[in-house]
Amino acid sequence: MTILELAMYNADFLGSFGESILALGKELRPKNIRMIVVLPELKDWCQLFKEEGFIVEIIPMGYPIGVKGILKLLNLVNKYQVKVIHTHFGIEYSLAAAMVHLISLLHPNLVWHWRGGPARPNLVKRVAGSVMYKFLDTLVSVHIPNSDLIKEQLLQYKIVTPSKVAVIYNGINPDRFKPQEGLSIRNELGIGSNELIIGNIRNFRSRVNHKLIMDTAKLVISGNKNVRFILVGDGPTRAEMEKYANTIGIGEKIIFTGIVQEVEKVYAVCNLTIVSYEPWCGESICNAVYESLCMEKIVVIPNIGSTPYVFKEKDGVFIVPLNPEAMAEKVIELLNMDLHSLNAYGKRGRQKVLEQFTTEKWAKRIANIYAKTLLSKSLV
Predict the structure, then answer these.
(1) Which helix (DSSP H) or strand (DSSP E) does residue 7 occupy?
(2) Which of 9, 83, 139, 254 has a CA positioned 20 to 30 A from the CA of residue 242?
(3) Residue 212 near residue 238, CB atoms below 8 Å
(4) What are phi and psi for residue 160, nearest 5 degrees?
(5) What domains can be seen in the chain, in order of their start residue?
(6) Could you give the C-alpha distances from 13 to 35, 51, 58, 78, 350, in angstroms and in order?
(7) Ramachandran angles phi, psi of 337, nearest 5°
(8) In this structure, are residues 297 and 267 in contact, taking their beta carbons and an 8 Å threshold?
(9) Is the pTM here over 0.70, yes or no?
(10) Phi/psi at 172 (nearest 5 deg)?
(11) Number of helices and strands in the chain (H, E)
């Protein structure tokens, strides 16, 4: 029995997504289910998949994926008698999987993982996308949105069959993201022992709304010169945000680290973290929220997206209106809170992640979908 995981994922590091796929492969192995992982580029961390006995194949991304990519995917399906194609990220791969489903005599089951909602910031894309989504729904066996909000959107736009939808939230590795000392990263980044640190671990893209982070930082720093902000990540809007930080006079108080492989060390030095989205985005809960809580770090986040559906103040997640004044007010309030109370919030946040949002639990839920919905006859 073979399942093919098709992911438009080309990060330089394994990350929480890669760790989730590893956990899934380990979950499937005792059931005698073989896994093929198809990626757009060969990365060093692919060796970890090979060491676990997974087959790793490379099909370069592109839009559309092209005839060569579809034929290569078709060859893999026929060669390994693939029963399920599970797509993660990238409409290109979803379209290619649909073509293979139609062409191959095996007609493998399609599982579409929704890691973002179907809505787009303009009407033309939304209408065009709706037609495509409805067609793909006729071919898909299971839709897996990674939040209840995405499920609501899929049903609201009537682009999926309700009975095909199963919500599975993301998972992270709690053995990696666990409370630890932050002394080494303080020394590395030149952070004083008494400085208070606010972290934002997100790649720089327009939908992340780093301008909100900058404006919040300016208000926080104006009232406390002992505060610094660390922004981890890279992307097309980074240079613009670095320039903006200097323009509003807080450049010396912002540390732009770029990509950090051992990002858990950055979390360790933070007193708390803040997360932001554009109003039209944020349908899923970004991994930075799970990671922060698993590190026992409280989070301040605007009241948009899926996070308020799942996490409350008692879990160490503080939901505020979408404006820098509200963000800054809450950050300042939390920085002035006694350490015992902060630690209590952090411990409850980690406990909730351990109970519901680990890579192991994610893998078991995905395997359960495969077994109950797609492979039940074969696994009996």
Answers:
(1) strand 2-7
(2) 9
(3) no
(4) -135, 155
(5) 2-171+358-379 (3.40.50.2000), 183-356 (3.40.50.2000)
(6) 20, 16, 16, 31, 24
(7) -75, 150
(8) yes
(9) yes
(10) -130, 165
(11) 16, 12
